[in-house]
Amino acid sequence: MPAPVVLAGERVTLSMPTQRDVDRIAELCADPAVARWTTVPSPYRRENAVGFVTTMVPDGWASGRECTWAIRTDDVLVGMISIGDIHDHQGEIGFWLGAEARGQGVMSEAARLVIDYGFAPAPDGLALQRMVWRALVGNAASAAVARRAGFQWEGVVPLGAEQRGERFDEWRGFLHRSDPREPASGWPDVSFVQAAV
Question: Phi, psi at residue 154, to the nearest 5°?
Fold first, then answer.
C-alpha cells in the first residue's frame, strides 16, 4: 500500500486533497464541462466534496487501489488527477481541470509526473507495467493529453463507459512501461475534434 506522496514539477505540485480544499473542489466540479466528461456527481454539492476528501481519497490510498492528487499551480487547486483501478501491475489514469487552467500545458505536466510515478519501481513508485486511459467519445481534450503522454490508440468500445446510470461509447488507449514518453501517432482524426459540452 503506497503512502500518499507529493509530486512536484516546474509549474505544478501534486498532493493529496484535504478538507481545506472542499470549497474549491465544489466550485470547480460545478463546471458543466467537468460534469460532462467525468463521473462526478451532477449537480455537484459541497457534501460531495467532503465525502471525496474525507473518505474516497484516503480509502483509495490506504487500500492501494487508487492514488489521487490535487493539481496545484501557485498553491491554488486547479484540478485533479489519479491512477485508479490498480491491480496486477496495471492502473488507469484519470483527470479533470478547471477552466482557468486549460490550454496551458498544466495537465500534460501533471500527467507526466503521475505516469513516471506509476511506472517507477517500488518503493519509489507503483511498479506498474501497463497504464490505461479511457474517455467518453468526443472528449478530444482528454485525448490530446493522453496522446502527448505517449498513449497508443486502442479503439472505441461501444457502451464501454458508465456515467451516472447511463452507458456511453468510450475511447481507450494504453501505455506500457517500456513505451516512449513522446507524442504518439496513429490516433484517428475524430479524436482531435472536441464535442460540444
Answer: -105, -35
Angle between helices 106-119 and 140-149 (to 10 degrees): 50
The distance of Cα 9 from the centroid of its chain, to the nearest Å, equals: 16
Q: Which residues have a Cβ under 8 Å from the Cβ of 92 and sit 6 or more positions away?
A: 83, 84, 85, 131, 132, 133, 134
Whole-Å CA distances, 64 to 8, 68, 83 = 21, 11, 10
Distance of CA 190 to the CA centre of its chain: 21
What domains does the chain contain, in order, with CATH numbers?
Answer: 7-192 (3.40.630.30)
Query: Would you call the peptide bond into 188 cis, given omega within 30 degrees of 0 as the criterion?
Result: no
Query: Which among 98, 103, 112 has a CA at the least distance from the CA of 151?
Result: 112
Q: What is the pLDDT along the chain (197 residues), one digit of tens a residue?
A: 678 999 999 999 999 999 999 999 999 999 999 999 999 999 999 999 999 999 999 999 999 999 999 999 999 999 999 999 999 999 999 999 999 999 999 999 999 999 999 999 999 999 999 999 999 999 999 999 999 999 999 999 999 999 999 999 999 999 999 999 999 999 999 999 888 76
Q: Find out whether 163 and 139 touch, Cβ atoms under 8 Å.
A: no
Rounded Cα–Cα distance for residues 100 and 104 (Å): 9
